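Next comes this protein.

***
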Amino acid sequence: MEERLQKLLAQAGLASRRGAEQLIRAGRIAINGTTVSELGIKADPEQDRISCDGKAILFEQKLY
C-alpha cells in the first residue's frame, strides 16, 4: 500500500516524521536508486527499494 515517504521512514524507526522530512530534503533518501528531494512522494515498501545513504531500509509488518 502506498504511503507518504516520510511516514514510512518514521514507521521503520529511521527518524521522526520531521526528521524524515529533513533527510528527504537533504537528498539522503533514494527510491529504486533514484534520489528523492521533494516532500509528498508516495512509495510502497513491498514493491519499492527505499534506501538512506545507500543502505537499504527494512520495513517489518507489525502484528498486534
User: Anything to note?
Assistant: The longest strand covers residues 29-31.
